[in-house]
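Hey, I was hoping to borrow your eyes for a little while. I've been puzzling over a protein and I'd love to understand its fold better. The fold is given in discrete form, as structure tokens running alongside the sequence. I'd be grateful if you could look everything over and explain what you see. No rush at all, and the record is pasted right below.
>
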Amino acid sequence: MTASPAPLIAFGRLRAGRRLSADTFWLDVETPAAESFRAPGCFLKLRGWPEPGPLLDRPFSLHRVQAGGLQLLIRRVGPATRLLCGLAPGRPLKITGPLGRPLTEIIPDPADFYLVAGGVGLAPMALVLDWLRESGRRSRLFYGERSGRHQVDPAWLAAWADDFTATVDDGSGYGRPGLVTEPLAEALAREPRPILACGPPPLLAAVTGLAERFGVAPWVWLEAGMACGLGVCLSCSLPLKEGGRFKVCREGPVADGRTLDWEAA
């Protein structure tokens, strides 16, 4: 079993940025500590440095580690993400991590997977795909958005996700109209596989229900507001079916969806 990496505080600079949709940005952060973050499933906390900004660092999934840099996919939704997405290349950043448990610890023997990304839940999937390829496993990505304006650049997506199905709820943009769970259910009926999903709670709850219907494991990538990121404040904890709470920052961010009390959450 692979031990959880010890978190560290590192500094870097924004090397490049790219706008991929109306409010989604790809950031490339150069740091000498990049290789220390190569742990699929873990996340980091980020803030501009030493610029004034939000009191707390913000948690983000790690998209990829390449050429001495950390790549992130961020959706601009509030003051902190607006600040980060608006930074010019060369600006310094403070990075804390890797945080959480890596997938190599949670799922030490990976199988062929269906990957499901709702919205910016797409962020961790490139590093997951790299891990599965290195493990000799097949995967297929299902990527869903509410509208075409939120969809990322399809050429950018195709550059790292060679087998994907895109859906869009309102029928605009590219891909198949409708919910991302529809082609997922069809794929499960043809070939049941375990699922690894990241996105909003209603999607994760729906994916868990589909997994139970087809008798496969649903691994869900949880995103929750958090303060410390170290399991102390409990602000990110979620209720479990059998009682108690799941600490997303320390025990996750990936969990077996069948253990969570989705109605209470």
